[in-house]
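[DERIVE STRUCTURE TOKENS]
===
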Amino acid sequence: MADDVLPILMPNIEGNGDDSSSDSEREREGDENADGHEEEQQQQHPQEDNDNERKKKKKEKDKKKKKDAKRNINFDQSLPAIHTYLGDDHEEYSGRTVLDDESFVNLPLLTLPSVVLIPGQTLPLQLFQPQTISMMRHVIQKDRTFGLVTSRYLDTSGPTLANIGTTAEIFSVKEEDEHGIETMRIKAMGRQRFLILETRRQADGITIGKVRILPEWEMPSGLEGAELRCHRLNNIPETTTAMEVAACGGPAGDRQPVARSRKNRYRAADWTWFPPWVYRQYDCDVLMELVKRELYSWNDTLQESIMPTNPSDFSFWVAASLPLDDGLRLHLLSINSAVQRLRCELSIMQKCTIMCCRDCGSQIAEKKDVFSMSVAGPMAAYVNPGGYVHETLTVYQVTGIMHHGRPSTEHSWFPGYAWTVAECRQCRHHLGWKFTPAKKKLKPEKFWGLCRASLLPGLRSDGGDSEETGWMPTM
């Protein structure tokens, strides 16, 4: 019986039966199916990779297209800077009046709401009041210098003058008399900062202020006392004269190039209690480079050619270009040193992320949307036909804005562009204007001019909170 069963079992034990072959075939079929699934998965993954790659390329292409659109400006950017909308045939004045630092002078004061004049900034004016025109005529006959102070409204107590202002020197005037109504169009330049000590009002209604001219201090290098003779020689600029070399303590000789190493500028720090990075924080050259780098992070289309090279002038240019509220602008005006002013501006720029509506706090624009439509910079002061001065910031894109009225080219600050009133969609507060080309092939195709007085900078603190935490810029 065992012999009868054994032949039946042997084929299966040895693996030569039909069942064995079917199992192997099933295994092969399973392997083939598995290979087929892997091939399908491999085909699906490249498809997904291709889709992701296409999306990535499209995103980069759109980003490049947007960047090229920002750079592609065929508008004459010098026109807004000379305020062509004020007309021609202005009487031009040359020369400059410089008041001594720390001196006490009496200045006629012109007050404008929400206008904080910065030294180096152009101020356009359209005057209609007879007493103000009379004051300007007297100023032109004297030294062409008056004081500009911003006025702020606190509750219902009326306007309150700020305690810090800027002298303005007139360089262009045009007077007109139409139907017995006298008008005066003026272009003035911000010059020196002053502190108001006291004010008095004359019988003709003109406000006279006794002011102290604030100095502009140049801080010496923190390593000046620790520098050795060899350190001073290493800091001499290239191609210096023998007299300049001798003045720094070196041997007098023929003119020869002297290598200047930026690293050697802080070698004297080894003789002090502080490391070199401490002194770099108060180096004007380093601070200017950091501020420029931060400006390019806002918008890399800004041209360095329009930026002043002098540290003091550069710090004022940055202050005039940033969308700051009156409080921060007055704070910058109160600083008497370019180093401290640059440190303060750098701290503000690192904190500022967005621009919001002053009334409701809605987001209006991002810092990357800022660009320069004028050679004067991304922000400049312009005056409307009613004589109201608006400090206007130009941006490419906005959010939460609605437009009111039809486009108009009358008295346009940007010749060739028509303006439309722009309001906040949330609270209907006036924010500025939308500009669209009235001429064909004029680029950019559209942009917005936002009033600085209607904006509030969105400043983040280290903890991620808003400006309500009491953040103040670093000094």
